[in-house]
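Sat 14:20. Reprocessing the chain from the morning session after the first attempt stalled halfway. Input below, unchanged.
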Amino acid sequence: MTAESLATLQRTLTRAEGRRLTSYLDTTGNITIGVGHNITGRGITITNALSDKLLAEDIAEAWSTLVLVLPWVAGLDEVRQQAFCELSFNLGIKKLLTFVRTLSYARAGQWDEAADQLLESRWAVQVGPTRSGRLAAMVRTGQQP
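Finished this time. Tokens:
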């Protein structure tokens, strides 16, 4: 198939199928995304490059939301910014905001207390000691562990 023929087919299929950037159930009940890409029937596989692109976009979204809602985070050192961005990425901003004592201690620069609160949370149990310990150490010291 020539490049011109492929481009024509892509335009035709896009018109016929429609383009949806969020998943939906098609008329036969299959989970579908994009231009008729049937996830139910064949699963979904992405490339490393696409995975990296999605990750970069998700980090950018987590960071912009974090500093919009908690602007004081932008004034922290880079390691603590990374820790809070990872928390926002992992938990979502709404759930992160329920960490009232952690955030209060962090905003006041009381790093030991903020880290201790992280480690005492249900989240720490859920993600396990490796991740929770690493993020608590970043918050506590402002250094990469």
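The chain is about 65% helix and 10% strand.
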